[in-house]
Write a structure and sequence with these properties.
Radius of gyration: 19 Å
Strand order of the largest sheet: 2-4-5-7-6
Helix content: 10-25%
Distance between the termini: 65 Å
Number of helices: 1
Order of helices and strands: HEEEEEEEE
Shape: globular
């Protein structure tokens, strides 16, 4: 009976970890200051873009809220998607410290803006 109870608790734990444990919190720039640890930054490239993904100082740019004015500086190292440019919606994983979002290597993903806007009514 004890072995069955332990097995049931272990099964519930494994199910919880597989569903919730692997998720990273997605935040927009206006929400970053109140969160620590690793997060996914979601927003729009709004600032000047400097550097290169594989340069020593990395690729540097700003990401803003998609429908707002808050921005955050981002430092990214790694491959840069072909669709990366000003105005493009992006998701990047990393950590926010001292006013700068330091992205994990090769975690930059571009998104099509049409996925985030409402369809036009005719």
């Amino acid at each position: 009976m004890l072995a069955l109870s332990v097995a049931a608790v272990l099964a519930v734990f494994l199910l919880y970890v597989s569903i919730a444990g692997g998720r990273t919190v997605q935040l927009k720039p206006s929400e970053l200051a109140s969160h620590g640890g690793n997060v996914s930054l979601v927003g729009r490239v709004v600032g000047p873009v400097h550097g290169a993904g594989y340069a020593k100082s990395g690729l540097r740019f700003k990401v803003g809220d998609i429908n707002g004015s808050a921005t955050v500086r981002v430092v990214y190292r790694g491959s840069v998607p072909d669709q990366f440019k000003l105005g493009r919606h992006v998701v990047v994983n990393g950590r926010y410290t001292h006013g700068v979002f330091t992205a994990k290597r090769d975690s930059l993903v571009t998104k099509c803006p049409s996925k985030f806007t409402n369809a036009k009514k005719s």
